[in-house]
């Protein structure tokens, strides 16, 4: 008894050690994968930030020798020269997207600025205390990030020295804002931030993190920042962070920090991602593994017990074996008969489907006949015009008026193209397709269908409204979409017969198409039946009831779905949806 208890305790200890090993393995694997993902994200963030800054840094270089700016440095008291410089900088700032362009003399006073007409104009302000001004004045390319001393808006500053014939040195500066870049970081659930060498968070995906410090500022760092007024008048308070297992805790969430150095300003790009989900996942993996081990152990015990039971029942099983064989023979005979019945039923269903397909094709050909009549009406006018144009061309050729002959031939070509567009879809409309997934322009399909159905629209005085359909593409083949539109519009035309102020409305997006009218609509009990083959709400002889069945088949063949509801205007609403969301 004691030995058995010792074995159970030993097994429990091994089981616990195994679960601990599984948890640690899962945790370490997830940490490695998450760190790899974080580094990839940081590479993307760094490339975006560097690209955003780099695309503006050459603007001061391009203007370094501009005559208007050099004349301003030479004649800072000439109002006309300064005004031209202000106008030049204003226009260049608007064209390049730079927030502010401004010109300073050797003492740091702004002589001209792109915002010279604004209430927060920089003209007359002195920025000699800024590091980028001193760097530029000494011949280097000055760079600086901080809060604007006049506007209070943070931005990235560039400065470049300007000389006029070796005298009257000045600095041309540009300021860009990175607020839009920060907004692009906000949708992520992780924390993205740029930290400067003084541990100040200069950029962040969360506004409550910006211009906070990760560690308290030293007196020397505080004095330097006050001198350059880099973040003035912000207090630069220390971020309230906790610590758990050597990891930072902010707002009750524990994070792990991934970091990547930036080439500019000795910045560091950090990505803080929560570690608790990884612990939860590791715990779930361990729990699943533990339950699996327990289940396998119980299964093994059950198998041993079952084996003993089988040995006891083996004799009885041998006695029943003969009866089982007889019963099996009878069942085999029944299975043969059942298989024959299933085969006959399958053949009957195949014949039925073939008949249904033939009737559907007949309905399509009937619709083709209606469209052919409309096309014949539309083709008659270009044929008449083509005949007259050919006669005029012959006369012009005889008179030697060849420019007019060329223009007339071009007109004839356009008439032929119009007739080709009207007739090219008729043969393809009658064809059947198994798969209709593709890509087509909605306005092209709609133009083709309207070229067939416009006589009916004009005859019934029905208004067709398009809502935001210009330039849209849908994930369905062009000819399939034409058949869908033709069937739906024809149904609306039939429903709107005799109705005053009749209207058909189309609305579409990247993955949906809606069509509705203000007709009598479809009764709610019939909404689920109208797509069944041979079901029709029209009077006898007006249709086979296959139009909406064809529409449903074409849409489903393009991996979409058809939804039929009642429209708020009283008619029926048909929605074609290709969205993958359930």
UniProtKB/TrEMBL annotation:
It is a multi-pass membrane protein. Gene3D superfamilies: 1.10.287.130, 6.10.250.3020, Histidine kinase-like ATPase, C-terminal domain, PAS domain. Keywords: ATP-binding, Cell inner membrane, Cell membrane, Kinase, Membrane, Nucleotide-binding, Phosphoprotein, Transferase, Transmembrane, Transmembrane helix, Two-component regulatory system. CDD domains: HisKA. It is found in: Cell inner membrane. Residues 374-582 form the Histidine kinase domain. One of its GO terms (molecular function) is phosphorelay sensor kinase activity. It catalyses: ATP + protein L-histidine = ADP + protein N-phospho-L-histidine. It is an enzyme of class 2 (transferase). Pfam families: HATPase_c, HisKA. Its main location: membrane. The chain crosses the membrane at residues 278-303. Its EC number is 2.7.13.3. One of its GO terms (cellular component) is plasma membrane. PANTHER family: C4-DICARBOXYLATE TRANSPORT SENSOR PROTEIN DCTB, SENSOR HISTIDINE KINASE. This is C4-dicarboxylate transport sensor protein DctB.
């Amino acid at each position: 008894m004691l030995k058995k208890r010792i074995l159970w305790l030993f097994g429990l200890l091994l089981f616990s050690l195994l679960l601990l090993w599984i948890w640690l393995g899962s945790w370490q694997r997830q940490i490695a994968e998450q760190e790899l993902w974080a580094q990839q994200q940081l590479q993307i963030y760094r490339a975006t930030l560097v690209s955003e800054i780099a695309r503006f840094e050459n603007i001061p270089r391009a203007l370094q020798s501009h005559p208007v700016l050099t004349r301003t440095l030479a004649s800072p008291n000439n109002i006309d020269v300064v005004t031209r410089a202000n106008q030049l900088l204003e226009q260049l700032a608007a064209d390049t997207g730079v927030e502010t362009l401004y010109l300073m003399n050797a003492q740091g006073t702004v002589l001209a600025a792109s915002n010279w007409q604004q209430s927060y104009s920089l003209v007359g302000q002195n920025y000699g205390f800024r590091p980028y001004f001193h760097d530029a004045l000494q011949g280097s390319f000055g760079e600086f990030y901080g809060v604007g001393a006049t506007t209070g808006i943070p931005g990235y500053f560039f400065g470049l020295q300007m000389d006029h014939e070796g005298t009257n040195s000045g600095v041309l500066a540009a300021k860009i804002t990175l607020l839009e870049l920060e907004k692009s970081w906000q949708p992520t659930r992780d924390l993205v931030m740029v930290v400067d060498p003084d541990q100040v968070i200069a950029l962040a995906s969360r506004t409550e993190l910006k211009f906070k410090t990760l560690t308290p500022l030293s007196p020397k760092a505080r004095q330097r920042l006050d001198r350059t007024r880099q973040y003035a008048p912000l207090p630069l308070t220390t971020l309230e962070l906790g610590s758990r297992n050597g990891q930072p805790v902010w707002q009750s969430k524990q994070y792990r920090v991934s970091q990547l150095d930036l080439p500019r300003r000795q910045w560091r790009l950090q990505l803080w991602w929560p570690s608790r989900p990884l612990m939860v996942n590791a715990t779930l993996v361990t729990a699943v593994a533990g339950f699996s081990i327990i289940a396998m152990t119980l299964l093994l015990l059950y198998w041993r017990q079952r084996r003993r039971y089988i040995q006891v029942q083996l004799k009885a099983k041998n006695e029943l074996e003969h009866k089982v064989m007889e019963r099996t023979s009878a069942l085999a005979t029944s299975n043969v008969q059942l298989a024959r019945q299933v085969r006959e039923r399958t053949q009957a269903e195949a014949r039925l489907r073939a008949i249904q397909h033939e009737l559907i094709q007949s309905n399509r050909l009937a619709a083709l006949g209606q469209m052919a009549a409309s096309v014949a009406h539309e083709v008659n006018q270009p044929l008449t015009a083509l005949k007259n144009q050919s006669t005029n061309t012959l006369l012009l050729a005889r008179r030697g008026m060849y420019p007019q002959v060329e223009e007339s031939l071009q007109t004839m070509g356009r008439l032929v193209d119009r007739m080709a567009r009207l007739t090219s879809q008729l043969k393809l409309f009658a064809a059947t397709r198994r798969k209709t997934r593709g890509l087509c322009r909605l306005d092209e399909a709609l133009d083709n269908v309207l070229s067939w159905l416009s006589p009916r629209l004009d005859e019934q005085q029905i208004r067709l409204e398009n809502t935001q359909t210009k330039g849209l593409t849908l994930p369905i083949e062009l000819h399939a979409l034409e058949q869908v539109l033709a069937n739906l519009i024809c149904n609306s035309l039939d429903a709107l017969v005799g109705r005053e102020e009749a209207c058909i409305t189309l609305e579409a997006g990247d993955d949906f198409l809606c069509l509705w009218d203000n007709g009598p609509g479809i009764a709610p009990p019939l909404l689920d039946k109208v797509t069944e083959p041979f079901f029709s709400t029209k009077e006898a002889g007006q249709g086979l009831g296959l139009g909406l069945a064809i529409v449903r088949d074409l849409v489903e063949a393009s991996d979409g779905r058809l939804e039929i509801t009642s429209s708020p205007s009283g008619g029926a609403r048909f929605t074609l949806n290709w969205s993958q969301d359930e």
